[in-house]
Amino acid sequence: MDIMNIKPKVKKAYPVVYMNNSVCVGGFGKITEYADETGVLQLLFESMNGENTIGEIVSIIQKEYDEKFSEEEIIDSINEISKEGFIEDINFIGSEILSEYELSRYHRNINFFSSYASLFENKYKYQKKLSDAKVGIIGLGGLGSHIVYDLAGLGIGTIKAIEFDTVDISNLNRQILYNFEDLGKSKAELAKKRIYNFNPKINFEVVEKRWKSPKILLNVLKDLI
Question: How confident is the model at residue 162 (pLDDT cuts 50, 70, 90)?
Fold first, then answer.
C-alpha cells in the first residue's frame, strides 16, 4: 500500500494528553513525552484519528503552518511515533483473515497484540498465526491441564494431547480440568468435554494411550509436525 493512503490512528491502549509545550503518551506503566513548542505535534496526533490518510495529514499540517514543515519531515515524525507502537492503520480489516467468531472471541488478544504491531503491520495476523498453529501436549495432569486451558483460550487452532490415566483425589488440588465427581473417570474423556465446552471452535483431540517410549509419542503426534 502507498504510504500516503495509510490511515493512522492512535491505539486505544495509549491515552494522549496535551500539556503546555508538550504531548504526553501513556500506556503500560510508561509515559513518553514529546516537546511541542509550536503545537504541530498536537495537531499531528489529533489528525491521526483514523479518518485521515497520511497524505491528508500532510496537507492539514502544511496548510496550518504555511508549509513550514516538509512532507518528508511530517512522514518522518509519523514513522518515529509508529516505532513506539502508538499508532495503527485502520485499513487493515480483520474479517479478511479471521472468522466472525475469532474476531469476537479473541478481541482482547488482538488488542494486546496490536501493542507490538507497527503502523505497517496487520495486528490480526498474530491471531491468525495462533489459529493456524498446532501444539502437542504430553499428559493432562498438574502442568498439562493448565497449559491446555491457556492454549485453548489463546485460540491455538489444533491441540492434540496424549493421556491414559484416571482421576484420583490427589489430583484435584492442582489439575484444574477435573472435579470431585470425576474421581475414577478417564482424564482423556473429561478433557475432551471440558475443552470443547470452553472453546468449541478449536480442534482438540486426546489420544487415550499409555506411552513407554519416544517412538510411541512420535507416532501419536506425527501429524502435528
Answer: very high
